[in-house]
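Troubleshooting: if your tokenizer reports a length mismatch, compare your output against this known-good record of 321 residues.
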Amino acid sequence: MVSAATPTSSGCSSPSRPRPDQTTNGLPALAPPMSVPGAPQGGGESMSQLDEVASTNRRFWENEVSQGSGYTRPWLELDPALVRAFAAGDVDVLPEPYTYIYPQWLFHDVAQATAAGRPKDVLLLATGGGQQSAVFGLLGANVTVYDLAEGQLAGDRLVAKHFGFPVRTIQGDMRDISVLADESFDVVYQEVSLGYVPDLLPVYRGVSRVLRPGGLYRVAHCEPVGMCVDEASWDGKGYRISEPFYRGRVRGGSDSSMEFRHLLSDAFNGLIESGLVIRGVYEDPRHLIPTTAAPGTYAHLLTWGQIYYSIVAAKPAGGCA
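Known-good structure output:
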């Protein structure tokens, strides 16, 4: 847990590894591999060494891809005009299944940078599947996707080909992004994937390193209490808390995933320890969308209580916080 970890660095970029000026096909350059404290070695394009957590969760997500689960379906039907309207502020909340794309102002900034001829370099961290990459690609960003599951990355390549924008995909563990160069991204965008690692700090420190000064990290989390509630707990009146709040590992096994609960102190203090500054906190807007989902289903649970939230943190323009 973050609260129990001992920081080994400020999260600021190492002065011995300067920001690269060279890019490849408009995308940030890759860096020579380096070690990230607390992370399994062999990340980035090398998948030769994975610990039990990563190997179990990779199997889980490859299986999810094979079954066509919701978060693995590329958004081939996404309307480019809808994306542009959302970025322009003409649409406050995107309809399902795109509702968890937020906050709106971040996408406005990306679109404005493209219009000014300075497209943002965006890293989608542990956020493969051809969904978020479709949004950023349609807004003209230079998109890199870094994900543990090859099947998820295939979805990003498919959606990029479908809409006609370039994308770079890299398979690796989010705890070791050492293949990516220092200060090479303007935005790092991460969906609710941190529950698949036991410690947030290796991820946060890696993000701080690859962000440019002034760059933004948008990261989604599951509310800790949200992992204590299951859709099957519906009793006709509401959902009940079915397990202790202060529990670390949630579930795991060779035929499932390994997930971990991170407290609010983990989520926020880890960002601060990594040299980032909190810019804003945003609740998932799915409760704003009318639903016909039946009680006792996950779709209904998402509208019943606040399960997810996002933090936007910035790397100080002067470097270290």
